[in-house]
């Protein structure tokens, strides 16, 4: 029996290992901007979070992103990312489970 190798990454907030596609990537670009990278293709240092706002809030509280990105992320950036995260969360899950809601 063959086992497919699924790339796993650790959520920086809850420390759970998850398949990469289940996680939302936050990236610090070479220009020094911290932003959500939904497609996982931007260059820069990345950190992964579960696709859950609860995990983002945890990361914000514990400053997990500061550690993961090796640079301080200011409070306004955390607030901005939280807004983005809430928007992106819907899109992220809609894209993933799109097939189940097609019947109507
Ligand atoms: Zn998590």
Structure description:
The chain is α+β, with helices and mostly antiparallel strands. It has one domain (8-97): YlxR-like (Hypothetical Cytosolic Protein, Chain: A, 2-Layer Sandwich), CATH 3.30.1230. The chain has three helices and five strands; from the N terminus they run βββββααα. It has helices at residues 53-62, 64-69, 75-97, and strands at 8-10, 17-19, 23-28, 34-37, 45-50. The strands form two sheets. Strands 4-3-5 form a three-stranded antiparallel beta sheet. A two-stranded antiparallel ribbon has the order 1-2. β1 (8-10) and β2 form a beta hairpin. α1 (53-62) packs antiparallel against α3. The longest helix has 23 residues, at 75-97. The structure holds zinc ion. Zinc ion (ZN) is lined by residues 11, 13-14, 16, 49-50, 55. Pfam families: YlxR. InterPro entries: YlxR, YlxR-like_sf, YlxR_dom. This is DUF448 domain-containing protein. It comes from Paenibacillus lutrae. Residues 9-83 form the YlxR domain.
Provide a short characterization of the protein structure:
The chain is an alpha+beta fold.
From the structure above, extract its key features.
single chain, 38% helix, two-stranded antiparallel ribbon, 104 residues, binds zinc ion, 21% strand, Hypothetical Cytosolic Protein, Chain: A
According to DSSP, the number of beta strands is 5
Q: Would you give the CATH topology?
A: Hypothetical Cytosolic Protein, Chain: A
| Strand arrangement in the largest pleated sheet | 4-3-5
Protein structure class? alpha+beta
In the CATH classification, which architecture applies?
A: 2-Layer Sandwich
Please state the overall shape, judged from the principal axes of the Cα atoms: globular
């Amino acid at each position: 029996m063959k086992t497919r190798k699924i790339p796993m990454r650790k959520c920086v907030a809850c420390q759970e290992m998850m398949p990469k596609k289940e996680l939302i990537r936050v990236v610090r670009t070479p220009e020094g901007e911290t932003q959500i990278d939904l497609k996982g293709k931007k260059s820069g240092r990345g950190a992964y979070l579960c696709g859950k706002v609860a995990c983002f809030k945890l990361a914000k509280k514990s400053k997990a992103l500061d550690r993961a990105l090796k640079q301080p992320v200011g409070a306004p950036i955390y607030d901005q990312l939280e807004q983005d995260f809430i928007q992106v969360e819907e899109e992220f899950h809609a894209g993933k489970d799109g097939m189940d809601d097609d019947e109507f």
